[in-house]
Design a protein that fits this description.
heterodimer, A: alpha+beta, four-stranded antiparallel β-sheet, three-stranded antiparallel β-sheet, elongated, B: mainly alpha
Amino acid sequence: MREDGDMNMDHGMNMHHDIEQLVALAVGLSDASDRSAVEAHLAGCPACRQELRELREIDAAIRRVPPEAFLEGPPADADLVLQRVLREVRTQPRVRSAAEAASSVRSCGADARTGPELVAAVAEAGDGVRVTAVVVGVPAGEPCTLVVIDRAGGRHSAVRWIAPECGAAGVQGSASVRIDDVVAVAVVAADGSGIIS
Amino acid sequence: MIEAVELIDAIRDLPEEQKAVIMHLYFRASSLLDASSALDVPKGTVKSRAHYALRAFRKSISESADTEGRAAE
């Protein structure tokens, strides 16, 4: 694997930049000398500019996803994650019951008698919405999907996770639906059946 | 817009060494040097693993779009 930023001949007679250097530029890993060499090449290469645009779109999408969404189970600092989500929930304009969320988190791992509970906040983000939620009382190991439901009844998946052992999950995701069209947020099981909304 | 759920699936499917690089670069906001040091690999390896991870994301997103396109037909 080359790391020197040299041009290559992968595309017939056209000289194109090393894809790794484009990735490094898209992700922000290039040092100054690499960056200037790549940018000089980009100025005269539409194909590499298009490649860079696509890589940056993926880079931006990854940056919108919260780290806890990638955890298979409860994170080691689950309490801190939940506290952070709750702080975000409390600052959202559409929150109706942040106090319930705080109460639910305090009951983490101690009380499943009340059944599943969901507190969610929806905020506009670009052309879609960002959803922040605290979900408690779902049996551990249950695959869950947070869905945004629009006026027409359409379901838009925002984030998936596996219910943690402690019974409480703080999750965040996004969906391509206009905020004015959002009528509900729900948690559904792997078979599509509703757990709570 | 690329939906988060597509990326989550793609990240979960990554080999562990690429997943570790993505976690360092994106979620711990590590610099190239910090990621290299934490993972005990050369900086070039961090870049190449990031390259393979982003390529996997693009493939996964592309396949997802193709599947949705076929479902809509």
